[in-house]
């Protein structure tokens, strides 16, 4: 029996059909719309070996991957280990950026970083429904909601650009290996997968990470269902 309106090359059933369908859905991830377009502009097809590690739906895989990534970020930012993220955690992060990259508090780039994180924090609290701190589940939900809501602040653009300006200490509008190592130091990331990410973030092989490649990695972190995508491992390998 043949299915009408489908080209002869389409497998009709079984694992090959699932793979054929998913290979065409994957570039769009779970979500559609212009938020996702940035994910496919540099590397539309993640490595085949990284796909479909488990037999599950794409929606489930995406939700699981993003939750795992947000948990890693929660653990990295909750440096006082009180089980909540609040503004003081972000203030310490900002201070680590400025100290590690030796940027003065009165520097224009420092002001931009503070404003970006203040906007991010205000928007997280708005999506959480108020309060002054977020537990792990509230942090997950608020980040998910904010990553899709650019009405007041586009966090996947605003923070990466402000951070990039801090990281680019020699002002050549790109991130070299030494500049990237300081980034991992700021976040306290020692996972070897994250350390080795530099080469994969450098998509065009220029030997440096461009601004566009860095923002692309941030998009992968918040949107990609692929746990092996370079942006997905900015805070280490996902335990999923
Ligand atoms: Ca905390
Ligand atoms: Ca640089």
From TrEMBL:
UniProt GO MF annotations: calcium ion binding
SMART domains in UniProt: EFh
InterPro entries: EF-hand-dom_pair, EF_Hand_1_Ca_BS, EF_hand_dom
All copies of domain EF-hand, residue ranges: 65-100, 155-190
Protein name (Swiss-Prot/TrEMBL): EF-hand domain-containing protein
Organism: Streptomyces minutiscleroticus
